Here is the input.
Amino acid sequence: MEHETIVLILTFLIGWTGHAVYSFILNLGRTSYMVKYMGYALMCCSKLVSEQVGDFLEIKYKSLNMMGVESNKVKTMRIQDQRTIDAIQQDMVNIMIANYPKPFKHHIEFKNWDQMMKHIENNQRSDYVR
Here is the structure.
C-alpha cells in the first residue's frame, strides 16, 4: 500500500514536470515566432515611413524649384536632407539591433539599412505574409 502511494506520487511529479517542460518549450517557440514577426513588421513600417519621407522631400524640392529658389540651394538642401535620412535610417537599424531580445538575435541578419531592405525583400513572400 505504501509502495503504491509512493509510485503514484512519483508518477504525478514526473507528469507535472514533463508538462511544465513541454509548456516552457512550446511558449518559447511561440515567443520566438512572435518576436520574429513583430521585428519584421517594424522593419516594414520603418521602410514605409522612410519612403513617405522621401516622397515628401521630392515634393518639397519641386515646390522650391517652382518658387524660383536657386538650384544650388535646392541641391544643398537635397544633400543635407539625404545625410539626415541616412543617419536616421542607420539609427533605426542600430536601435533595433541593440534592443532586440538577446535569445532571438539570430533573427537579425543585417547591420545597415540596405541589408535590412534586402532582408525585407528576401522574406516578403515567405511565411511572414499571410
Notes: The two ends are 57 Å apart (CA to CA). The first helix runs from residue 2 to 66. The chain has one domain: 2-123. Helices lie at 2-66, 71-99, 113-123.
